[in-house]
Design a protein that fits this description.
Layout (H helix, E strand, L loop, with lengths): L11 H10 L8 H18 L15 H17 L8 E3 L2 E3 L6 H7 L10
Antiparallel strand pairs: 1-2
Helix pairs in contact: 2-3, 3-4
């Protein structure tokens, strides 16, 4: 069973879990990290298909939602570190992050490869 990523100040185990999954996580500022993880979770849930009556996404989120939360948190962190040109990095190694990009959307709502039939 998967659980959402969190990093409360009083839970070193949760912080270590984040660090293990995301080596560049801003663990020096747990408040900001909490904002990022919480925002990513809300964005994942907002994009996800509507839950059924039996789904408890707070207590038992699907694995792909938790992974999407982690990847979206990375996107949000990187988006906050861009320069005035919209790039992260230096010299020739730069990229422009786009929050909730198509990769994260595909993690949340996998593409089945079947053509749409109307």
């Amino acid at each position: 069973m998967s659980t959402w990523y969190t990093a409360p100040e009083d839970d070193p185990t949760a912080q270590e879990r984040v660090r293990d999954a995301w080596h560049e996580a801003p663990l020096e500022n747990l408040e900001v990290l909490g904002f990022i993880l919480g925002t990513a979770k809300k964005q994942v849930l907002a994009y996800a298909p509507a839950p059924t009556d039996t789904d408890d996404l707070e207590a038992e989120p699907p694995d792909n939602y938790v992974y999407a939360q982690l990847e979206q948190a990375k996107n949000l962190w990187n988006a906050g570190r861009v320069d005035s040109n919209g790039n992260v990095g230096s010299d020739q190694f730069t990229f422009t992050p786009r929050p909730l990009d198509w990769v994260v959307k595909a993690i949340i709502r996998p593409i089945d490869g079947k053509p749409d039939v109307y």
